[in-house]
Amino acid sequence: MDVISSVRQMQDCAEQLRYSGKKIGFVPTMGYLHKGHLSLIQRGRQLCSAMVVSIFVNPAQFAPGEDFEAYPRDFNRDMALLKAEKVDILFHPDTRELYPEGFQTYVNLEKLPKHLCGLSRPVFFRGVATVVSKLFHTVKPHVALFGEKDYQQLMVIRRMVMDLNMDIQIVGCPTVREADGIAMSSRNAYLTAEQRPAALSLCRSLEKARQMISDGVSEAHRLIEAAKWIITSYPNTQIDYISICDPETLEEMEMVERPALMALAVKVGTTRLIDNTILNP
After folding, report:
1. Which parts of the chain have pLDDT scores under 50?
2. Residue in 37, 92, 115, 142 annotated catalytic
3. Residue 162, class by beta-carbon neighbours within 10 Å (0-12 exposed, 13-18 middle, 19+ buried)?
4. Are residues 52 and 157 in the same domain?
5. Residue 223 is part of a domain; what is its CATH number?
6. Domain count of the fold of the chain
């Protein structure tokens, strides 16, 4: 596995891969890899002949007071996992490489970030769209893969690629869960043993909603109230949002009479967790 830290070197290498007829698959990450990341790489291997993974903890998507400095990092462990997956290139730039002195150009979406996580994290999606755009221009992939756990992020990236006519196929991959059902996330490392049961409240709320839909309930407010009851029955939980919305626009829905996204964000202790599911009436 080649490890590249320079934007120019990565661009040159991507050009060589393309010239030699390779189809480039790309998985952007912030490191501290888990089975969810590895599932994206494995899916990319099925679709492409060369796999590139980036590790970059992007400061532009963290607001002051968020966990940029504390975000878990273990580069040597990540390297071993990527080598085991036979990744061809690891792109590992430092902050100055992607955000040089005087940097002032950002990518903003007008509507999608004004829902769900964007309401409590107003700088987040500007940072995500900007860094992913820069990574796409650097890695030059044919296919880029993202997890459906970060559903709003996936929609933002798809919209950006469509709006800016980027010649990249965006592939969403199913959420990978831990044995107890918690959606895999690098931030799960923050959870204490005592907080794990409370973290399960997210996936249990989604399971309850699916059961209620199966039983014929279609009113969004009833599904949301049931989720609130489950989450608040656990100690040290604080609901950021529970939303039932259109899967494409993320606009709120009052009735689930067609497929709907149920998405939620909950703080367990100081750890902010997200999860989602598609409800099919």
Report:
1. none
2. 37
3. exposed
4. yes
5. 3.30.1300.10
6. 2
